[in-house]
Amino acid sequence: MAKLRVAVLASGRGSNLQSVLDACAKGLVNAEVVAVVSDDPDSQAMQRARKAKVPAHGIAPGGKGMRAQHEAEVQRVLDEARPEIIVLAGYMRVLSPAFCQAWRGRIVNIHPSLLPAFQGRDGQGDALAHGVKVTGCTTHFVDETVDGGPIILQAAVLVRDGDTRDTLADRVLAAEHQLLPRTIDLFQKGRLSLEGRRVRILRGDSWRTKLPTLPDVLYGEGY
Ligand code: GRF
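That is the input. Now the predicted structure with 5-O-phosphono-beta-D-ribofuranosylamine docked in place:
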């Protein structure tokens, strides 16, 4: 069966991008990354893409009032790469409603909190500051709201007494690196059924029994 064509949009470190590249390389997911797009041409994500020999497109935003132009440039790259799914992996720009609608049901994001709690830029720091005892990460379809689209997978991570923002973020990140490739895997297998705001995961295999799970992490349905 042909591999699923994946485009990844990433702004920074690119560790989630790496988890997708690795899962593809290992054959864990029947997919290939056909393009990486970054709004920071010097980002680590771009370096990771080049190292993996994936076409890497650095498209710097042109400043105030240039959002539409920047997005059109991103769309042009995507048109050429012909992905079947777009993955936002630490992409720090908000996409326009028109873009989200055009890719509806074919664009996913990973967020470092148990949505809908702690939307926004610092899900881990906000969770810690709020004093929650459990946080985690979420993959979801992207709609025109920020971090508000239909939830696909979640994993819950315990907050420990001595946690700093960074120790907590590291443990959440380890779970992100499992959830994101698995989300692509489920999409590739046609197991994600979008029913209104809910995503039903159709029957099939489980990664819980196939891959090592992390201690003190609770995996939601579908993993
Ligand atoms: C991750 O925590 C992701 O959930 C959030 O941004 C961070 C990106 O990290 N959206 P990386 O660039 O993938 O390492």
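Helices lie at 15-26, 44-51, 67-81, 97-102, 123-130, 165-188, 207-210.
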